[in-house]
Amino acid sequence: MLQKLKDLENLLRQLESLVVCFSGGLDSSFLLKVATDVLGERAVGLTAVGPTLPESERQEAQRIAKDLGGRLILADSREVHNPDYVRNPSNRCYYCKSELYALAAEHKRKLGFAFVVDGSTVDDLGDYRPGLGAAREAGARSPLLEVGLTKAEVRELARQMGLDFWDKPASACLASRIPYGTSVTVERLGRVERFEEALHRLGLKQIRVRFHHEVARIEGANDEINVAFTQREAIVREGLAAGFLFVALDLAGYRTGSLNQLLPAADSKS
Fold first, then answer.
1. What are phi and psi of 5, to 5 degrees?
2. Beta 207-212 vs 215-220: how paired, if at all?
3. The whole model's pTM is what?
4. Which of 7, 113, 132, 231 qualifies as a FRET site for 101, CA 20 to 30 Å off?
5. pLDDT tens per residue across span 13-48
6. Domains of the chain and any CATH numbers
């Protein structure tokens, strides 16, 4: 694992200057940290800001970048103005990532930098990730993946380095809460964000609000399902306030990519 870190440092030196697509999540934060250590001001993070990014995560990304001593650009993201994105096909992430890499490439040119990089790891090869195709088309590099780092190894290295985000839960954009084939609108994203923020205030951390029109289906970590049930009256109240008519607790709990189970049905609609 330490050899992979050395390989990563050497690779970043070879790249010489780069824009890091920075979400504030574990992987991109770790990458920005190492890139900043190796390249100094020749590394800069870029966060795409728009309705799919919760305000709390934007603030957290800014805090992490500042704590790391990294430079950060906040760029307005326009994917919600793309009809192909809004109709929410099964390759929705392709359109989102294409917008991200286009923004990063634009700033790369302005800065006179050499590369755009992202925080993909080996684990990202094992799930449905249309965004990887967008990365290849854009010529973006994935240094963590290229040196063979897994998410578990990134997490352990971040822990050993004393980085406070080492145990940060996985996160995804708000559009991932809306099933494929259901259009992504600013209003729907706002409802999901308001409800999730309310759940966080109630003490629930690893939580997702899946949008099903009038129904909000809550996925929570296994150790939080019982906690959520004991607070069901407050949760229902917050769900109604966010614009939902019904609130359901998914007993299967939180799992990444759960809406990918609907891919065949979504593809049949398109």
1. -65, -40
2. antiparallel
3. 0.88
4. 7
5. 999 999 999 999 999 999 999 999 999 999 999 999
6. 2-160 (3.40.50.620), 174-269 (3.30.300)
